[in-house]
Structure formats: structure tokens, C-alpha cells
């Protein structure tokens, strides 16, 4: 499957408007017609109804192609036949996801002035990694690999990737506090190297993503059950770090209130 991104140039100018909007004649044109104004036929930037007009223009055209609007999000469109295709819209930025996209891209280019951006790697501030077909892992960290401070060569190898390691680890931190507490130890280990990460730390981060793919069905399920008491577990880690400059003592408490 491919996930490609494209940009509609001057998107709002493609959208007709229903309201009557009149404009003064711009400077440089015939100023003798002082009692004459211009009637706007299509939306322009700065007009409050322009975003909605553009959405109606694009969604109407997509539905003519057979797309349907998602009930969960009106900015998500999907095509079921002949092959599934998903289209994501954010103002004039569009992401398309599917196996064969050539025909759809050609149709969009014929209808709108479009800039094709190729495979999506950054969309709405979200870094997209090509790991859809990665091998799932069963452990959150690479077994028998002790994370150590990066050497200069490891730092350089990682810098060439031009990736924000701190932001990447932070995204996992949010996940661990929400629905995946099993990531807590991994994130704690990766967070020790936020200042000077190396390629080994990045590979360990990617391993966590592979673990998430292999455990995507893991859930926290809370049910009303008065028969089971609340149970708490605590654990501590003593002198497991190999380097004195990375002291770490952990005390974890997990409260279980569901199955």
C-alpha cells in the first residue's frame, strides 16, 4: 500500500459561492466607472465562507467518482471498488492511501491545479515512517542489548537521518500513559539519551514500533466487577546499569481495577 501526499494550488479559487458578494474595482483598472462594482463568482482567500465552499466543491466531485464520506470524520473519504482507496483532507492538503493511486492522481490533476509531493513522510506535523510491512516483535526492547551512551560515529550516523529523537520518544510516552503501560520501561530506557542519541538508540526505538505492531490487539479493559479486589504490584531495580553516569533506581506501582 502507498500513502502519497499532494497539494491543491489556490484551492479556494476553485469553489463557487452561493452568497452575493460584491467587490470594489481594484486600483489600476478603469476608475471612471465609479458607480460600478464587481460580483464575486468564486471564493477568494480571506472570505469567511471560502473553506466551506472549497470543501463542498471537492467533496461533491469526489462523490461523483464513487467516494463516500466517513461517518467518523467528514474530512475522510473512502472508495470501496474496484480497490479500496482512502483520501484524507486538511484544507488544501490531501493524503491518499491505497494500492493503486495512478488513476486517482491523474483525475485530480485534470480537475485541479495540483502539486504532487510523492510518498508522505511528514503530514500535519506527524512523522510517517515506512514500517507498514515491518516484522512484528514480541518484546518491547531488543533482547540482550544494553543501551549505552552513543559513540561519535553512532551520533553522526543518527544525525544523517535528520530525525527528532526527543519528539519520537515523547510520542511513545503519551501512548504509555494512556493505554499501553507495558511501554513504560522501554520509554524510561530510551529517555536517558534524549540529549545525544545515536543510531543504536534509534534502532531500539524502531524495535518498540515493531513491538506495537505485534501487540496491536492489546487493550485495557475495565469492567464492573465487585468480586475482584484492587491489587497493586511494586518492583525495584538495583544496580542494573553498567555505567556510573547513568544511575537508575525504579519503583513501579501498577493498580489493577479491571481484567
Automatic annotation (TrEMBL):
Pfam families for the chain: RVT_2
SUPFAM superfamilies the UniProt entry points to: DNA/RNA polymerases (SSF56672)
Every Reverse transcriptase Ty1/copia-type domain range: 4-128
PANTHER family listed in its UniProt record: GAG-POL-RELATED RETROTRANSPOSON, PEPTIDE SYNTHASE GLIP-LIKE, PUTATIVE (AFU_ORTHOLOGUE AFUA_3G12920)-RELATED
Identification of the protein by name: Reverse transcriptase Ty1/copia-type domain-containing protein
Organism: Austropuccinia psidii MF-1
Amino acid at each position: 500500500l502507498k500513502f502519497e501526499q499532494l497539494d491543491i494550488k489556490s484551492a479556494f479559487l476553485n469553489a463557487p459561492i452561493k452568497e452575493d458578494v460584491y467587490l470594489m474595482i481594484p486600483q489600476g483598472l478603469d476608475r471612471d466607472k465609479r458607480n460600478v462594482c464587481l460580483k464575486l463568482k468564486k471564493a477568494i482567500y480571506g472570505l469567511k465562507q471560502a473553506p466551506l465552499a472549497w470543501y463542498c466543491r471537492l467533496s461533491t466531485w469526489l462523490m461523483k467518482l464513487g467516494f463516500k464520506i466517513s461517518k467518523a470524520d467528514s474530512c475522510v473519504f473512502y472508495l470501496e471498488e474496484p480497490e479500496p482507496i482512502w483520501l484524507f483532507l486538511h484544507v488544501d492538503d490531501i493524503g491518499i492511501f491505497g494500492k493503486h493511486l495512478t488513476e486517482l492522481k491523474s483525475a485530480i490533476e485534470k480537475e485541479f491545479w495540483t502539486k504532487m509531493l510523492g510518498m508522505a513522510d511528514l503530514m500535519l506535523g506527524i512523522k510517517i515512517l515506512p514500517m507498514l510491512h515491518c516484522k512484528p516483535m514480541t518484546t518491547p526492547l531488543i533482547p540482550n542489548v544494553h543501551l549505552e551512551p552513543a559513540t561519535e560515529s553512532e551520533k553522526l550516523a543518527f544525525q544523517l537521518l535528520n530525525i527528532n529523537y526527543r519528539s519520537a520518544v515523547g510520542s511513545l510516552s503519551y501512548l504509555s500513559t494512556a493505554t499501553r503501560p507495558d511501554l513504560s520501561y522501554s520509554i524510561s530506557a530510551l529517555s536517558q539519551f534524549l540529549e545525544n542519541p545515536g543510531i543504536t538508540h534509534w534502532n531500539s526505538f524502531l524495535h518498540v514500533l515493531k513491538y506495537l505492531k505485534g501487540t496491536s490487539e492489546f487493550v485495557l479493559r475495565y469492567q464492573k466487577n465487585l468480586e475482584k479486589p484492587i491489587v497493586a504490584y511494586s518492583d525495584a531495580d538495583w544496580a542494573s546499569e553498567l555505567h556510573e553516569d547513568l544511575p537508575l533506581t525504579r519503583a513501579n506501582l501498577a493498580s489493577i481495577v479491571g481484567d
